[in-house]
Structures are given as C-alpha cells and as structure tokens.
Amino acid sequence: MQSVKDTVKEVVLAVFPVTFVVILLQLVVMQLPWIVFGQFMIGVVMVTTGLILFLLGVHFGLLPIGELIGAVLPKQGKAWMVIFFGFLFGFVVTVAEPDVRVLATQVDLVSGGDISSNLLIITVALGVAIFVGLAMVRIIYDIPLKYLLAAGYGLVFLIAAFTPAQFVPISFDAGGVTTGPLTVPFVIALGVGVTSVMGGKSATADGFGLVALASIGPLLAVMLLGVFFG
Amino acid sequence: MEIQIFAGFGETLVEVFLALIPLLLFFLFFQFFLLKLSGRKLLTIFKGIVLAFFGLALFLQGVYVGFLPAGEFMGEAMGSLPYNWILVPIGFILGLAATFAEPAVRVMGHEVERASAGYIPAQIILYTMSLGVAISIALSMWRILAGFPLWYFIIPGYGLVLILMFISDRTFVGIAFDSGGVATGPMTVTFILTMALGVAASVEGRDPLLDGFGMIALVALSPILTVLILGLLYGRKGREHGE
Questions:
Q1: Would you list the domain boundaries of chain A?
Q2: HSE of A15 in the Cβ direction (CA atoms, 13 Å)?
Q3: Smallest CA–CA separation between A189 and chain B, in Å?
Q4: How many structural domains is chain B composed of?
Q5: Residue B242 and residue B122 in one domain
C-alpha cells in the first residue's frame, strides 16, 4: 500500500527542484516584484498540499472505483457494454484531471475567452472518451497497437492540413496533458480488467497502449474543433 | 496590490465540484447495479473522494493565484531582456529540474530495466529522459524567440516515432507509448508553460496562441523517443550477447 509518506515524498520531489531554480533566478538574474514572488511561494505551498491530498484521494477513493469497475464490467461478457462504458469512463476521468483544467484555463486566458475553458475541457474529454472506447475494441478484437497508432497519427496529419494554424499547438498540448495522475492509473485499471477477461494475445504483448490512444483522441478532437470554429 | 490567497476560491470550489460530479454519478450507477459494496468500503471511497475534492481545489487555487501570475510575469520580464537568448539555457535547466527528481520517471526506468532483462539500466533511462525533456523545453524557448512553426519539430519527431515503432520490439513499443505521460509532471503545465506564454506575449511579433503553446507536446514526445531509441540500441547489443 502506498503510504502517506510516499505520496508526500513524491509530490515534494516533483515540485521543489523547479521551485529552487525559480528562487535562484529571482536572486541572480531577475527581480520579480516581491509581492509576485510571495504569491508564487504561497502557490508552491498550496499546490504541494493540494496535490498530496488529491493523490491520496485518488489512491483511496478514485482508483479503487477504477479497479472495481475494471474487474466487474468485462464479467458481464458483453462487448458493447465494455466499449460504451469505456467511453463514459474516459469522459468522466478527463473532466476531473488537474492538468487538463490548468491548460484549459491558460487557453481561455490567452485567447481572450474565444476558446472557453469549458468548451476545451469537454472537447478533450470527448476525444479521450472515443479513444478509450476504441482501445476497448482493440483489446477485445485483438487489433495490434501499431496499426491503430499509425492510423491515428495519419489522421492527425490529414486533419492538420485543414486546421487553422492557431489550433495546432493547443491540440498537441491537449494530447500531452490528458496523461495525468488520474487518467493514467484509472484507464490502466480498466485495461488490466478487460484484458484479463476478454483480451487476445496481442493486447498483453503490446502493453495496453491505452495511454497512447488516450492522448491521440484529444489531439484529433481539438483539431476538429479548430476546423469547425476556427 | 496585496497578497491574495483565497480570491475567487468560491468559483474554484464550484469548478472542482462540477469536475468530480460526473465521476461520482458514474460510480453510484455501478454501485447501485453491479458493485453493491458494503458500507465500510463505501465509506473509504467517499472519504477518498472528499480528500480528492479539497486537494484539487487547493491545487487549482494555488495555480490560479500563485503560478499563473508569477509565471507570466517572469516570462514577460525575461522575454523583454536584451539578452533574452538566456531563456534557452534557463529552459534547459528548468527541464532538468522538472524531470530528474520526478518519481514517475524513476518508476519507468525500473520498468524498462526489467523489460530489457537488465540490459538497459534504470539510471540510463533517468539521464536520457531528463536530457530529453531539458532539450524539449530549451527548443521550445528557442522556437518562441525565433518564431518558427511547431511543425518543424513535430514532423521529424513523430516521423521518427512512427519509423522506430515498426522496427522496435513490441514490448518496447508498449512501454514507450504507455509512458508518454510520465515526463509532463505537475510543474510543466502549471508553471513552465505559463512562463513560455509570458515570453511569447513579450516578444514583438509573436502570437501567444500560436507560438506560446506546443511545449507540452514536445515534452510528451521525449520519453517515447527515449525508450524506443534505447530499446533499439540495447536490443541489438542484447541479441549479440545472447546468440
């Protein structure tokens, strides 16, 4: 069992080195107004505490949900159910993912509200949802991961030709943030359950590929958003 | 200006509540129809959800009041320096700092070590990945200052991934792709990206939307490339030894 101590250590190691570099920069290269620097240091304390609480909550409350559902869902023996609930699973998890929210807020601010934070979060969540659903299809029907990835990225470059330039960097970043501390363990728990009950040979040999597929989904979804609204 | 800690905290609480509600409903549906957990287990899960709620609220509030203003300020200040090329080495150092101590990267290192039966030491993964992320962030800073499109990095990067994918061992392909997220630790999106956006806002002729974003994409690509390339290099060596 992951102890509280481990979680604290994990978060501190992830947050403090960058904080240390910022403190050095503040002292050597440039002087932020002390009030802004003070806000930053308060932010460090809040982010560290918040992340520790969140990860503990994920560990004791959210991850067991993923594991329980991952174990019970494939036992129903119906492919459509696994695919449909895999879709919903992807959606609800992404909506709660911290990094997705932070990126959406930044896009909202930088675009002056043109691409609102909620619109982006829902688009990204739909993208993840569709691709988690596809990942279930892959596991059940034993489709090798490389073909799906090659097709997915092929589609990315095809759609990119029609996407306004401003949407391209955001799309790729959206693909990067979905692989956060909530989505990854949650989606992998589902993958483990489904593979052990309904999976074919290639599912275990390729790894689950769920994380990779879950990050192509939002990339495509945000690009399409650009095609229609850009 | 005064120090603000809980400005807009009410909104953050509402946001987090709405963020967790779908997950809760999803769980309750399963609990009702399939899971039917006993009271004690249910209580533990609810405690966890409450913890996650307050954790997420505190985290987001910290980002909103602390990281976003400071990151933007720092990026703008450094972007307007006459010697703003300094952002390239600074980006490199930030990338190293964000990855080298990151526990997720270490976990992945051990996973690769096991998968390669000890041929790829975990330390090597840690070093190459930290270097990969550092280079990604340095390149992103350079891109913002110079103003060329993201495609210049994305097409060769993903092209290489696609080629390597077809000549690599399936085990490494699996590990490589499933670890795509390990390098985007909690400081990258919240702070380093914000800094990059500040830089893009301060440099003449740059559009923050077009030039500022794109860093996460490169950072997410680096572990995939690292694992595939190391898998290939060491895979050859392993086979020579084995046969």
A1: 1-58, 73-229
A2: 24
A3: 13
A4: 2
A5: yes
